[in-house]
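Deliverable D4.2, example record:
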Amino acid sequence: MAAIKAIRFSDRDNVAVALEKASRGDVIEFAGGRLELHDGLEAGFKAALCDIACGGVIFKYGEPIGRALRPIKAGERVHDDNIASALTGGLSIEPWSVPEPPKEETTPPSFMGYRRKNGRVGIRSELWIIPTVGCINGLLRSIVKNYRLPAGITAVRVLEHPWGCSQLGGDLDNTRNLLTGLAHNPNAAGVLVAAMGCENLQLSSMEKGLSDVENLRTVVMQDETDEEGAVLSRLDELAAAAVTERSLCEASELVLAVKCGGSDALSSITANPLLGRVTDLYTAAGGSVIMGELPEMFGAERGILARCASPEVHAELAAMLRSFRDYFTGHGRPVFENPSPGNRAGGISTLEEKSLGAVSKSGRSIVTDVLRYGDTVRRKGLGIVFSPGNDLVSCTAMAAAGAVMVLFTTGRGTPFGTVVPTLKIATNAQLAQRKKGWIDFDASTVITSGMEESETALTAKIASVANGEKTRSEEKDIADISIFKDGVIL
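Output generated by the structure prediction step:
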C-alpha cells in the first residue's frame, strides 16, 4: 500500500484526482482527507470520495461534470463506464452582474517588437502571401521556394488554404473575413494578396477591408504574362517598405492567444491554470489575450459569462454561445459530443469536465471583447472570438483577430503550429521529455516547483519568443492556417 497525492479542487467536490499512478489498495491523500482506492488510477484520473447513487450529480472544480450511470462506491474510479454528460441543447443565462477584476502586483517583461504605423506591435518581420483561392497554392509555393530573404525579413509565407472558389453565402463571407483579418496581423511586415482572377472571392470584394493595411500589394495571376516575375517584384517592394528595426515595447502592447488541444486530465491541474495566471498577469498590465473554441465552453458558460465587463458584452457573448449550440443541434448533433478519444484516454470523462478545465486558461480576467469571425481585437483585456474547438481553425481565427503568439497547452502532444509563433506547453513531464521536438515548455513544474515559479519561467519564455527566439514549430517551418466552413461546395 502506497500513499498517493491527489487534488480536490473544492469542498463541494465528490471526486479527487490522482497526481500520480495508483494501484488498488493504495491511499490517496488530499486536502481534508485520505481514502483507500478500490480501483487502480492513472495520473489525472478521478476517484469517488463517497458513495454516489445512480443519477447522482458528480462534482469537480465545485461544478457539476455529469451524472452517475450506476451506483459508484467510495474509492472507485469515475470514468466512461459510470459517468455521462448532463448537458442539453438549451442554455440558461443568469443576469449580468458587476465582475471583480483580478489584482496583479507584478508586470510581465517588456520585449523588443516591431512597431507598425497603426500602433500595433508585431514580434516577427515576415512577408505573407495570401491567396484568395486554393487553385494557386502550388504555384505560389513554387515561386517563393528559392526567394532570397531580404535584410530584416525573417520569413516569407504562403498562407495556403483550399477555399475561395465554389463557395456561397456564409462560407464565402467567412473566407473573405478571415483572410482580411490575417492581412492586418502585425507579424506581417508586408502582405501580398494573390488572386487567380475567376474565383468567387474576387479581389475587388476585399478592397474595402484591406484599405488600411499599411504595406500591401496585390496581383491577379491570370492578368500577368510573367506571374513569377510579378510576384517576386512585389515581394521586393514590400520588403523595401517594411519596418525592420525592433524597438522596446511594453507587455501591454502584446496580443496573446490561449488554446488547448490534445488535453488530458492534468491540463486542468498544471498547464491551463498556469495560462490562467499568465492571462490575468497580462490583462492586468493592460495587454490583450484572446480565447476561442466555443464548444469547449459548453457546461462552463456560467463562470465565463459572470466575468463580462458590461451588460452589452454579456449579451453579445450569450448570443454567440447560443448560436454555437444551435449550430450543433441544427446539424442534428448533441452538444455533448466531446471529449475526443485522446481526451478520454487521458482521464477526461465528459464535456462539462473538459470545458471547466479549458476555460481555466482565461484565469479570472474580465471579458471586454466579443469578436465575430474575422474581427480584429478592439479592446484591451480578455477577448472571446467565434471559433470551433478544432485547433487549426481556432488558432487561425485568433491570428486573424490580431494575436501575435499562441500559447498552446497539450497533454497528449502535437507538432501543430499556426501562422504566428505557437508556443506549446506540456501538461506533464513525460510528454515534455518524450517529445522535445514538439514541446517548448514543461508545465508539470506547477506540481513540483509551484505555481509562482512556473509563472515566472513561462512569462520569461514568452518574452524570449517575442524577442525572436523560435518555437519548436517555427524551427520546422510549420505555419498552417484553416478556415471555418459550414455550407455547400459548388
